[in-house]
Specification:
The complex is a heterodimer of chains A (113) and B (114). With 113 residues, chain A is an all-beta fold. Chain A has one domain: Immunoglobulin-like. Helix content of chain A is 0%, strand content 57%. Chain A contains no helices and 11 strands. Chain A has strands at residues 4-6, 10-13, 19-25, 31-38, 42-51, 54-57, 64-70, 73-78, 87-94, 103-104, 108-112. In chain A, strands 2, 4, 5, 6, 9, 10 and 11 form a 7-stranded mixed β-sheet that branches. In chain A, strands 1-3-8-7 form a 4-stranded antiparallel β-sheet, with no helix packed on it. Chain A is globular. The N and C termini of chain A lie far apart (36 Å). Chain B has one domain: Immunoglobulins (Immunoglobulin-like), CATH 2.60.40.10. Chain B is an all-beta fold. Helices cover 0% and strands 53% of the residues of chain B. Chain B has strands at 3-5, 10-14, 19-21, 24-26, 32-39, 46-52, 60-61, 64-69, 74-79, 88-96, 103-104, 108-113. In chain B, strands 2, 5, 6, 10, 11 and 12 form a 6-stranded mixed β-sheet that branches. In chain B, 32% of the residues are buried. Classes of the chains: A mainly beta (113), B mainly beta (114). The A-B interface holds A 31, 33, 40-45, 48, 50, 58, 90, 94, 96, 99, 101-107 and B 9, 33, 35, 37, 43-47, 50, 91, 100-102, 104-107.
Chain lengths: 113, 114
């Protein structure tokens, strides 16, 4: 089974802090994704990566950046956290070669105070 | 741009009954994929079922089946013999064949009552 692990289930940070959300997958998947999930809005794509050091903006990249230095790890960075970034963040990975679906982590519930 | 619409924010069903969740989508593409994902309370999102647009036969996974109406751009999920463990948020999602982007609907909260 694919295992996508997000480093924290719950995280509380302060406005203006630099925040790192980490995600690791164990299936050597090429593609990794970061989503934000808000009630009534569903999931929205922030960034995705299709290879090491490669990234592409999703639908709501403003205020976020990402890093992928190793294939198995994809980090989401909030450069200067703001209260409107309080949300649930979901990481996912996918192997595009076999037309597999995306596999999700458990999510990180981030609160910015 | 592709959009996915789930018109039922919340639904409930009695245990052992059948329930159908609606999903419509908008695209001008011919090669695409559709998915239903399930997110139980405080638990991981998992894939329930998927459908390739080029396949005419509706996908089925045990108690879960879809009604894929390509011309109407409709992709509903039917859950038969509902169980308490089916209580979850259900998201319909769409992906173009040449894209990595999944477009999600806003979700339907399903409650199965004993």
């Amino acid at each position: 089974d694919v295992k996508v692990t997000q480093s924290s289930r719950y995280l509380v940070k302060r406005t203006g802090e630099k925040v790192f959300l980490e995600c690791v997958q164990d299936m050597d998947h090429e593609n990794m994704f970061w989503y934000r999930q808000d009630p009534g809005l569903g999931l929205r794509l922030i960034y995705f990566s299709y290879d090491v050091k490669m990234k592409e903006k999703g639908d709501i990249p403003e205020g976020y950046s990402v890093s992928r230095e190793k294939k198995e790890r994809f980090s989401l960075i909030l450069e200067s956290a703001s209260t409107n970034q309080t949300s649930m963040y979901l990481c996912a990975s996918r192997d595009p070669l076999y037309n597999q679906p995306q596999h999700f982590g458990d999510g990180t519930r981030l609160s910015i105070l | 741009a592709q959009t996915v619409t789930q018109s039922q924010p919340e639904m409930s069903v009695q245990e052992a009954e059948t329930v159908t969740l609606s999903c419509t989508y908008d695209t001008s593409e011919s090669n695409y994929y559709l998915f239903w994902y399930k997110q139980p309370p405080s638990r991981q999102m998992i894939l329930v079922i998927r459908q390739e647009a080029y396949k005419q036969q509706n996908a089925t996974e045990n108690r879960f089946s879809v009604n894929f109406q390509k011309a109407a751009k409709s992709f509903s999920l039917k859950i038969s013999d509902s169980q308490l463990g089916d209580t979850a948020m259900y998201f319909c999602a769409f992906r173009n064949g040449g894209s990595e982007k999944l477009v999600f609907g806003k979700g339907t909260k399903l409650t199965v009552n004993p």
